[in-house]
Amino acid sequence: MTTDLDRLLVCLQLTDSAFPSGLYTLSHGLEGFAQAKAVDQDSMPVVLVDLLRHSVGPADATALALAHRAAGHADWATVAEVDRRLFASKLNREQRLAATRTGRQLLDTARLALGGEALDAYAELVAGRQAPGCHPVAAGVAYAAGRVPADHAVAGDLFAFAVSFVGAGLRLRLTDHRRAQCILREIAPVIAEVTAAALTRELADLGGCVPLADVMAGRHERSQARLFAS
């Protein structure tokens, strides 16, 4: 097996829906939009693109890229700082809980499946409460441990987010299986654009802003009937 092929396989494993991080149990705010009747079949892809460009890209993808870079240099102080800043940038309790719950599950499984000093060092930070353990930061460290290139790591995780979002749309009956695949293909240029931007940001630039999504997440948190955790 070539080294490049092995790195590709690590990327595919970490982003696969069968990887037990819990990412695919989230709607990423889509259920809140659906409950408010603020999204339909036609507008769902628009919401996805807006979240990628203005929320996930500037926040989660940027944190992943920064954590990947810092972990590659064993700079654990920076990894912890990226983690804390990302956690602080998430306004809703539901989003913070989802980020840390999936992050810690990813970390536990990645340590078992991939192993390595980088994942052990990050786990010590989380266990010692020096870092909250957000999913994008755990993913950045895991990709670095698997020697997956930063651009592939960021693009892979953004695609996993999009698959999870569209999957939630399927369960909420906002799309069907064939249309879902068309959406994922159509947003490929957006993922490439968001990936390139995330790789150039520094720590001071970390953080997204989609006020309507925050409002929907706040309403979803108080909803009595929920299909998804977020």
UniProtKB/TrEMBL annotation:
Keywords: Chaperone, Cytoplasm, Nickel insertion. One of its GO terms (molecular function) is nickel cation binding. The keyword Cytoplasm applies. Its main location: cytoplasm. It is found in: Cytoplasm. HAMAP family: UreF (MF_01385). Belongs to the UreF family. This is Urease accessory protein UreF.
